[in-house]
Amino acid sequence: MTICRRGKGIPGQHVVPLIADRKADSTVRKALARLGAALTTEQLTELNRQVDKDKKDPEDVANSWAKQHGLAKKGS
């Protein structure tokens, strides 16, 4: 089995939110749409690297990214 051939990398990652319909009100749906529009495969790969390789706290990494992209909650 060949996992990666020259010139062909691992395919892009797609974030697919799974949420119970009863929890997905309009506020949640809008937030997920904003996240989906802002988060690229390259950014997701970098965030994963920071957590997996650099051993940074996942919540800190996510909060930092969210602040940089105007997606953090007020007061965070």
Q: How would you describe the overall organization of this protein?
A:
Helix content is 47%, strand content 0%. It is an all-alpha fold and 76 residues long. The protein has helices at residues 26-38, 41-52, 58-68.
The oligomeric status of these chains comes to: single chain
Q: Count all strands and give the number.
A: 0
Distance between the termini: 46 Å
> In one word, what is the shape?
globular
Biggest sheet layout: none
Strand content: under 5%
Can you give the helix content as a percent range? 40-55%
Structural class: mainly alpha
Global mean pLDDT? 83
Could you give the order of the helices and strands?
HHH
Query: What ranges have pLDDT less than 50 throughout 5 or more consecutive residues?
Result: none
Radius of gyration: 15 Å
Total helical elements: 3
Key descriptive features of the protein:
mainly alpha; globular; 76 residues
Short description:
By secondary structure, this protein is mainly alpha-helical. About 45% of the residues lie in helices and about 0% in strands.
Secondary structure layout plus pairing:
Elements: H1 26-38, H2 41-52, H3 58-68
